[in-house]
What we know:
Elements: H1 2-12, H2 26-38, H3 45-50, E1 56-65, E2 71-82, E3 88-95, H4 100-116, E4 122-129, H5 137-151, E5 160-164, H6 170-184, H7 205-224, E6 232-236, H8 240-251, E7 255-261, E8 264-267, H9 274-284, E9 294-296, H10 298-302, E10 308-311, E11 330-332, H11 341-349, E12 353-355, H12 357-360, H13 363-377, H14 383-408, H15 412-431
Parallel strand pairs: 3-4, 3-5, 6-7, 6-10, 10-11, 11-12
Antiparallel strand pairs: 1-2, 2-4, 7-8, 8-9
Helix pairs in contact: 2-4, 4-15, 5-6, 7-8, 7-13, 7-14, 13-14, 14-15
Amino acid sequence: MRDELSREREKKTMVPEAKSSKQFNPFEIAQYQYDSVVKKMDIDEGIKEIMRYPERVLHVSFPVKMDDGSIRVFHGFRAQHSTARGPAKGGIRFHPDVTLEEVKALAMWMTWKCATVGIPFGGGKGGVICNPKEMSASEIERLTRRFTTELSAIIGPTRDIPAPDVYTNAQTMAWIMDTYSMHVGEPVPAVVTGKPLAIGGSAGRNEATARGVFFVVREACRNLNIPLAGARVAIQGFGNAGSIAARLFFEGGCKVVAVSDSKGGIFNPNGLAIPKVIAHKERVGTVVGAEGGEDISNEDLLELDCDILIPAALENQLTGANASRVKARIVAEAANGPTTPEADRILFERGVTVIPDILANAGGVTVSYFEWVQNLQSSYWPEEKVNKRLELIMTRSFEDVFSVAKQQGVHMREAAYMVAIRRVADAIRVRGIYP
Ligand code: NAD
């Protein structure tokens, strides 16, 4: 009986162990994940085919004058996976390893993320192959402005709305907004999100990802009968997502028993004093050595005796090698892609609830959507309103995904894909095929 059950569950897992994700480029992985879910869904075959590909990809090569007077040619990309439910939405990254296939995959994942939480955007992503760590601020500014010019044929507040991503930030968004506005002859704050508050950024954007994680974990606890008060939480990564999550869980009455960053982690079974850990990190640049914590490695943190585990750093942290030792009952993916398909299967079989990235960390893009709405209306919301609306969307989205997971007997990642794919397919179907 037990074997039958695990065979049945294995069949429903998205990527079988034999096909390790390492054999594929990121876009092939994204397509593979999509194919394995959509094949079980009752959707027109032509519409299934439409969703397998980006609607549009732009590849640009453009010159930038460097500080020493030399000219360098950079290569950049923007992929728009789907605009069926609204304008494309997604970050722009500056990184030496950016590839077209990566950008296409990330754009597809953005489509599913926006659809999972029901915000009226499709998915996009862009990037420039460059190493910002070796460039001056003015070189990065010129690169950003010229890249924006190259993209201006396809971006815009009703077409495609970029946001910060790896090695881009609020300042980068301000340059994009300014460049685009100069071209059209009027200020267009809604062309990007993640802007500084001075030019139309939203209150609450900085905390939104972590706050969204908190809301979905709270809902998971409610459904699984785990009291949130006193729940033991371990968090890997102490940057924007991880450190703010630590504070919110601490303030929410949980015991944050372990946190870590790239230098290592700290642990206290009775709970860490998170405000002191944050102050320590600000002073010395790492959580290691903060008062009241014993040292712990990043690997040990993942296997710690706790109720809730929040990977908030890198991809591929929970793998076939360690998933069987994870003791948490809930894993909430603040990071993108922290769980490999093998680990997904193992955790599902062991009854661990994994709240997938496209749901768990969608608070960021949700408040980006609020920023865009505020820009279009030229009317700005107080932070309480932003947080309240975020809470409504995250709570409802958790329920949508959790109920499909229960009904279909699949894990929450597959359920989230089902919810998202259905929404995009419905939009394509009712819009019809042009001409
Ligand atoms: P960040 O750069 O602010 O922080 C990353 C943290 O991870 C840092 O504390 C760093 O020290 C730590 N880290 C690096 N290597 C590590 C290792 N080997 N072990 C443990 N910790 C390590 O980044 P962020 O914005 O917090 O993003 C973290 C993750 O969350 C990424 O996967 C990102 O894509 C995802 N995410 C972030 C947002 C957001 O709004 N910030 C939104 C959606 C998804």
